[in-house]
Design goal:
heterodimer, A: mainly alpha, 434 Repressor (Amino-terminal Domain), two-stranded antiparallel sheet, 5 helices, 9% strand, globular, B: mainly alpha, 80% helix
Chain lengths: 68, 177
C-alpha cells in the first residue's frame, strides 16, 4: 500500500491517546490499528471526516503517499 | 438464520451420505476380492462344489458367470463412490463454513475448484476403464460418459470463481475502516 495513515504524530501533537480518538470518532481501536499499521484496503469519507473533525486537521495532514 | 438451519440440515444429510458411501466402498472392495478369487480359482471352486454334491444332505448349485469386465465394472463403481466421498467431504466443509456464517472465505473457492477437478477426473477414469473393459474378456453393458457430471464440474468451476471474487470483496469490506 503506497498510501498510509499517519495518526501517531497527530495524536502526539494533540496529547491524545488512540483510545480517546477511538471513543471520539466512534471507530473501534482494532479498526484504528488497521489504519495505523497500513493494513486498511479503504477508508470511508465518514471516518476520515470524523478523524479530521476531532484532530482539527485536513485529510492531507493524516494521509501520505509514498512511492513503493 | 434460515440459511444457517438449512446448512445444518444439509450437513446432517451429507454426514449420513458419507457413512453410506464408506460402507459402499468397503462392500465393493470385499465383492471385488471375492469375484477376483472366483475367476482365478474357478476350477478349484467348481471341484469343491462337486465334492459337496456327493454329500446327500447338502443341496448346492453353482454357476460362475463372472468375467473380468465385472471386475472393471466394480473398479468403476469404486472410483465413482470414492469421488462421491471426496465431493461430499468438500461439500461438508463448505456447509460448515456457512454454519459459521463465513461462506465467502478463500478456502471455499479452493474446495469448489477441487470438486470440479474430482468430477472431471472421475470422467477421465471412466473413459480409461471403458477402454479397459472393452479389451478384457466379457460382455460390456451399456456404459457411457456422464454428461451431467461434466456439467456439474462446469457449474462447480464457475461457482469457485464466484466464491473467489466474494472472498476478495469480503476481505476488502473487512479492511475498510
Amino acid at each position: 500500500m503506497t498510501i498510509s495513515v499517519k495518526l501517531d504524530r497527530m495524536l502526539l501533537e494533540r496529547g491524545m491517546t488512540l483510545t480517546e480518538l477511538s471513543e471520539a470518532v466512534n471507530v473501534t481501536i482494532a479498526n484504528l490499528s488497521i489504519l495505523k499499521t497500513g493494513k486498511a484496503k479503504a477508508m470511508r469519507f465518514s471516518t476520515l471526516e470524523a478523524i479530521c473533525k476531532v484532530l482539527e486537521c485536513q485529510p492531507g495532514d493524516i494521509l501520505t503517499f509514498e512511492e513503493e | 438464520m434460515k440459511g444457517k438451519s438449512l446448512a445444518k440440515t444439509l450437513e446432517i444429510i451429507l454426514y449420513i451420505s458419507r457413512i453410506i458411501v464408506i460402507i459402499a466402498l468397503i462392500g465393493i472392495v470385499i465383492v471385488a476380492i471375492g469375484v477376483s478369487a472366483l475367476i482365478i480359482y474357478e476350477d478349484q471352486f467348481l471341484l469343491w462344489v462337486e465334492q459337496m454334491r456327493e454329500n446327500p444332505d447338502v443341496n448346492i448349485e453353482a454357476d460362475i458367470d463372472v468375467t473380468w469386465t465385472d471386475i472393471v465394472s466394480l473398479i468403476a463403481s469404486f472410483v465413482g463412490f470414492y469421488i462421491a466421498f471426496k465431493v461430499i467431504s468438500r461439500l461438508r466443509e463448505i456447509l460448515n463454513s456457512i454454519s459459521r456464517e463465513k461462506p465467502f472465505e478463500a478456502e471455499n473457492a479452493t474446495r469448489l475448484s477441487r470438486i470440479a477437478k474430482y468430477l472431471v477426473w472421475g470422467q477421465i477414469a471412466s473413459i480409461i476403464l471403458l477402454i479397459i473393459a472393452a479389451l478384457v474378456p466379457g460382455d460390456l453393458d451399456d456404459w457411457n460418459i456422464n454428461l451431467t457430471s461434466l456439467l456439474a464440474a462446469g457449474i462447480a468451476a464457475v461457482l469457485a470463481e464466484v466464491f473467489r471474487e466474494g472472498a476478495r470483496m469480503r476481505e476488502e469490506q473487512e479492511f475498510t475502516v
